[in-house]
Design a protein that fits this description.
Elements lengths: L2 H12 L4 H13 L6 H13 L4 E5 L5 H9 L4 E6 L2 H13 L7 E5 L2 H4 L8 E6 L6 H11 E10 L15 H15 L3 E6 L5 E6 L4
Helix pairs in contact: 2-5, 3-4
């Protein structure tokens, strides 16, 4: 096993999930949802806590796993979760109830992100998590950057595509889109970008705060 693989395995195994998150993950997997890894979830929680997030949008519920991690870091935040699959939203609702998250802090929207996001208010959220249809990742990130407040953060898990992005021979449309997203945001003066290789990868984009 390479040093990188050993480090990744250690980071994943060292992350401890509360029982309610373990149950949410199990139910999400049973549904065929693809929840974020525990190691990436822990990063989300730290970012949410460090930014004192009060308003969060997640595009793709992951059966409630990502939302639970975000709310673990920002226990007073309002979470809006968007998914085109009603059963995934239903699983998220059960997961939040199991975790005793007050319903007043949760907003559920059933629909395609491409239809929902244009109707949402710009500069209104502290964090936007983009974990939906990979084919639409660039469009969703563009919306996310519009939706966050100055100083807000857009988070994109799974951005390394299981090693495909780093493989120059992979030229399928989705891999090229993720590769372009990383390269263009790293070079952009409008955001401060960081790429974490923990778990399945996490792209972090902080929108520059106004003076």
């Amino acid at each position: 096993m390479s040093d990188h693989a050993a480090n990744a395995r250690f980071a994943e195994e060292a992350t401890v999930e509360p029982d309610y998150l373990v149950r949410a993950r199990m139910h999400a997997l049973e549904l065929g949802a693809e929840p974020i890894s525990a190691a990436v979830g822990a990063q989300l929680a730290v970012i949410a806590a460090a930014t004192h997030a009060a308003s969060i949008v997640e595009i793709g519920t992951g059966g409630g796993v990502s939302g639970l991690w975000l709310l673990r870091g920002a226990p007073s935040a309002i979470l809006t979760t968007i998914d085109s699959e009603p059963e995934h939203l239903a699983a998220a609702r059960r997961a939040f109830t199991d975790a005793r998250i007050p319903s007043t802090r949760l907003r559920y929207i059933t629909g395609r992100a491409g239809d929902v996001l244009p109707r949402m208010n710009e500069a209104s959220y502290d964090i936007v998590l983009v974990d939906a249809d990979p084919a639409g990742v660039i469009e969703y990130v563009e919306h996310g950057l519009r939706l966050v407040k100055p100083g807000g953060i857009v988070l994109v898990p799974r951005v390394l595509r299981g090693g495909a992005v780093a493989d120059p021979t992979r030229r399928d449309a989705v891999t090229v889109a993720y590769r372009s997203l990383i390269q263009e945001t790293q070079a952009s003066p409008a955001v401060i970008g960081a790429l974490s290789t923990t778990g399945e990868g996490l792209l972090q984009l902080a929108v520059a705060a106004s003076d």
